[in-house]
Amino acid sequence: VVIGGAEDKIGDQEILRLVADRVGRGRLVVMTCATEDPQGAWKRYREIFTKLGAKNLAHVDIRDRTAAEAAEVSEPIDGAKAVFFTGGDQLRITSHIGGTAAYRRILKVLEGGGIVAGTSAGAAVMSGTMLVEGRSENTPKVGDIVRMAPGLGLLANIVVDMHFSERGRLGRLIGAVAQNPRVLGIGIDEDTAALIEGDVMTVVGSGAIYVVDGRQSAHANVAEVAADETLSIENVTLHVLGGGRRYDLERRRPLPPVEQAQAA
Amino acid sequence: VVIGGAEDKIGDQEILRLVADRVGRGRLVVMTCATEDPQGAWKRYREIFTKLGAKNLAHVDIRDRTAAEAAEVSEPIDGAKAVFFTGGDQLRITSHIGGTAAYRRILKVLEGGGIVAGTSAGAAVMSGTMLVEGRSENTPKVGDIVRMAPGLGLLANIVVDMHFSERGRLGRLIGAVAQNPRVLGIGIDEDTAALIEGDVMTVVGSGAIYVVDGRQSAHANVAEVAADETLSIENVTLHVLGGGRRYDLERRRPLPPVEQAQAA
Prior knowledge:
Distance between the termini of chain A: 26 Å
Strand content of chain A: 25-35%
Low-confidence stretches of chain A: none
Oligomer: homodimer
Radius of gyration of chain A: 18 Å
Mean pLDDT of chain A: 88
Strand order of the largest sheet of chain A: 3-2-4-5-1-10-11-14-15
Largest interface: A-B, 40 and 40 residues
C-alpha cells in the first residue's frame, strides 16, 4: 500500500481504514524511522489505528544501523501482518535499515502474504531506485533533474513519486523515467494510495495516480546533450487514474474498474 | 509565436529577438489590452524591441469594445508585419476585441503572412477555446477542472496553457483535453515559445513544451461521474519537447529536430 502523503486522518480515512481492515487481528507495526519526531508520529498513528479497530499495535523506531541489526529492536516485525512506514526523509529509512536484520524481517512479512505500507517518504522507499529530491518548479534540465538512490526494492521496475499534483512533480518523474524507461513512473497524489496486489494496482482515496510509461518513447536526450539543456522525450504514455481504477503493472495497461470487472 | 510567459528580457532574449528579427523593417504593433498597466508594458517592450533592432514600433491599447470598433484606434495594425500581445488577463483581450474591427485587422495580418505573437495571457487567447483559470495545486476533479471561454480562434484544435512547469499545470491541461480530445493540449513553460508556421510547431527558448494528445485516450469519465469525483483518463500521449524540437500539429507527431532534418 503506497500512499502519496497527507492521507485523510480525520474524515472517512479510506486509506488508513483499508490498512486497519486488512490487518484485522494481526499485528500492525508502525515504523517511524523516517521522521525527526518518532514519538509524535507513533502517538498519532496509534490513536488513529486504534480507533479504526486495530488491536495489536507495535512501534519500531530505528535510528542507526546498529539498532537495525539488533535482534530485539526489530523483533515485533516477525510475524506481523503489516508494517507501516510513516513519512519524513526517505534516506533515513534506507541508510539505516537497508540490508540489515530489520530489512530481512520486513521482506519475510511480504513473503508471508503480509502488507508493507508507507506514506510520503515511506512510500518513496518501496521501489528499487527511489526519488530523493528534484526540482519540481522548473522545466527539467538534463543535468539536474532528480537525485535518486537505491530504495528498499520491494517493488520492481517502478519509481514512485508522491504529493504529485500538489507539488507539480510531473517534470521530475519524467526525468526519472527518461533515464531508464524500464521503470514505470507512478505519481501519487496526497490522500491517495496505490494498493498493489500481485501485478494489479488499484487506486484508493480522493486523488489520482499518474502512470508515466516511457517504454514506447523515442528521442529522449538524457545521454546526448549537455547538462544545462532541456530534457526532451517523445511518445510517453500517460494515464490519470482516479479512485477505483486499476492498472496491470506487469502488462502495463489499464484494467476495467472493479465494478465493471465484477459485472463482466 | 505563442510564449509561455516570463520570456527572457535581459539575457540573450532568444524569443523576443526572434520576433524582432522576423519583423525586420516592418511594423511591430504592441497590443497591451490584457494588462492593467498598458503604459508600463508599452514602455518596457518598446525599449526591448528597439534594442533588438525593430525600427517601426506602434502601441495599440484597447480598453473597451467602442475603442475596438473605432477605425483610428486600431489603424496601426493595418499592414503591420507583427502584432504582439502582452500578458495580463486573457478575458480583457477577448471580451474587448473579439469580433470587432480591431480583431478583423489582426486576422488580415495573419492572412497576409504576418506574425501574431503573445506572451502569457496573450498566448492563451490564440486558441479557439482558451483556458481562463483552473486550480493547478490539486488533483483535477470532474466538476472544477477548468474555466474555459472562446478565444481569438487563431489556432484551430489547440488549447494553450502557459507558465506550465512553473505552476504545475498538467492537471488542468489534461482536464481541458479530457473534455474534448479533438483539441491538442499545448503546455508552454516560461521563457519558452511555440513558433507555429503552417502545421509545424518549433520549440524556442530555455524551457519545454508539453504536448498532451488525448485522441487515443479511453475511459475518460468527465461526462459520467459526479462533479466531486476525480478525473480519470487513460492512454494519453505526452511529448516533452525542448528547444529546437519540432512537432506536426496536423498529423500529431514529433518531427526530427531542425539539424537532423537539414542533414537528411
